[in-house]
Amino acid sequence: MEKVVLVTGANSGIGLALCERLLTEDRQLRLCLACRNTQRAEAARAALLTSHSGARVDLLHLDVGSVLSVLSAAQEIKARYNRLDFLYLNAGIMPNPAVDIRAFFTGFFSRNIINMFATAEGLLTQQDRPNSDGLQEVFATNLFGHFLLIRELEPLLCQPGHASRLIWTSSSNARRSAFSIEDIQHRKGKEPYSSSKYASDLLSLALNRHKNNQGLFSSVTCPGLVMTNLTYGILPSFLWTLIMPIMWLVSSAASTRVLFSSDNDSNGVCFPIDQIRIFTNTFTLTPYNGAEALVGCHPRCDAPSVVFTVKCRKLSFFAAPLVLPKARVAGSESKISQFDIRIWE
Ligand SMILES: NC(=O)C1=CN([C@@H]2O[C@H](COP(=O)(O)OP(=O)(O)OC[C@H]3O[C@@H](n4cnc5c(N)ncnc54)[C@H](OP(=O)(O)O)[C@@H]3O)[C@@H](O)[C@H]2O)C=CC1
Ligand SMILES: CC(C)=CCC[C@@H](C)[C@H]1CC[C@H]2C3=C(CC[C@]12C)[C@@]1(C)CCC(=O)C[C@@H]1CC3
């Protein structure tokens, strides 16, 4: 049966790499690239068709930062497709980022160094602004537009006898302390990106709670640090080249990826709800590698109750079970009782 997959922000970076990988995994897919820029979307489609001739790749105009655009795209999706198996909520922005150099050097010579490179905690601020709908741009793009899209697509996503999956591209930068329920748009703070990603983690949990019984399952993934337009907006490319050796040094510790589940569906099958990198493997993260977790959510719909995937050197392989019980799930401490370890390469 042909599966319908829609990816937001599919024309570059992780989204585009995800599309490439999905088409490689499943030739039967009907893939819809939902992008705000038609020219870039057409270029992405052409590139995908060059590597996967004969693939079914559709284009859809969608600006997730605009309420009107989301509403009309949702109408178009409902008119075009009679099912939606996977909805990848990947589009995201980080406008006007600034790195706190002082905090970087303080963190670099402290015990917090691994955490700093993995999460950028205390390092990054952004300047947000209201958009034409009067919403804060980061909140509207990274979270609200996607939320509205899901709500509008419920007739497709919650069909009896058919399971659909939502897969969010979240971030290790998501932090509980950056998010406030009194200021969900993060109007007052300087970390709207961190706040929006934490809010998407929370939303995913809430969607699971309320929609699992209607056949809708939501997962959150973290791609790690990936070199894309987004990261090239943080530092100029020559600086990235300069700090590459530091990145390599820090990332040489390990790369552990955890995909596990805490919500059972009514059939006793668990669906992965979160993916976490415990150590960082920062500079090796190409968009292809960054899309790993997202692709992992696609074919593993009927995953075993706990899937814990380890990609690491010997040392961290043995260390992983020690750190795992302390893994963070959307801001709360979570205990993992069983795991199935696979060593990659
Ligand atoms: N790179 C990294 O290290 C990390 C990235 N992420 C997340 O991964 C996701 C993809 O980012 P990444 O690939 O790195 O960066 P890119 O900038 O390469 O990709 C972002 C994509 O989102 C699209 N987009 C942005 N705003 C909108 C909008 N309003 N409507 C529709 N599409 C939009 C962009 O389109 P356009 O080309 O038109 O701008 C682009 O296709 C984001 O959610 C990001 O937060 C998470 C953790 C780490
Ligand atoms: C010498 C010097 C100024 C180094 C700065 C390094 C930082 C630019 C990076 C260290 C950790 C990185 C990181 C991200 C961006 C770049 C860093 C802050 C992200 C915030 C990018 C987007 C994400 O979603 C998560 C990343 C976490 C790690």
TrEMBL record:
**In what pathway does it function?**
Steroid biosynthesis; estrogen biosynthesis; Steroid biosynthesis; zymosterol biosynthesis; zymosterol from lanosterol: step 5/6
Task: Report which reactions are catalysed by this protein.
Answer: 4alpha-methyl-5alpha-cholest-7-en-3beta-ol + NADP(+) = 4alpha-methyl-5alpha-cholest-7-en-3-one + NADPH + H(+); zymosterone + NADPH + H(+) = zymosterol + NADP(+); 5alpha-cholest-8-en-3-one + NADPH + H(+) = 5alpha-cholest-8-en-3beta-ol + NADP(+); 4alpha-methyl-5alpha-cholest-8-en-3-one + NADPH + H(+) = 4alpha-methyl-5alpha-cholest-8-en-3beta-ol + NADP(+)
User: According to its UniProt record, where is this protein mainly located?
Assistant: endoplasmic reticulum
Q: Where in the cell is it found?
A: Endoplasmic reticulum membrane
E.C. numbers: 1.1.1.210, 1.1.1.270, 1.1.1.62
Query: What domain of life does the native source organism fall in?
Result: Eukaryota
| Entry's Gene Ontology cellular component terms | endoplasmic reticulum membrane
Keyword field: Endoplasmic reticulum, Glycoprotein, Lipid biosynthesis, Lipid metabolism, Membrane, NAD, NADP, Oxidoreductase, Steroid biosynthesis, Transmembrane, Transmembrane helix
What GO terms in the biological process aspect are recorded for it? Answer: cholesterol biosynthetic process; estrogen biosynthetic process
**Gene3D superfamilies from the xrefs?**
NAD(P)-binding Rossmann-like Domain
Q: How does it sit in the membrane?
A: Single-pass membrane protein
GO MF annotations in UniProt? 3-beta-hydroxysteroid 3-dehydrogenase (NADP+) activity; 5-alpha-androstane-3-beta,17-beta-diol dehydrogenase (NADP+) activity; estradiol 17-beta-dehydrogenase [NAD(P)+] activity
Q: How does it assemble?
A: Binds to the short form of prolactin receptor.
Q: Which family does it belong to?
A: Belongs to the short-chain dehydrogenases/reductases (SDR) family. ERG27 subfamily.
Name by which UniProt lists this protein: 3-keto-steroid reductase/17-beta-hydroxysteroid dehydrogenase 7
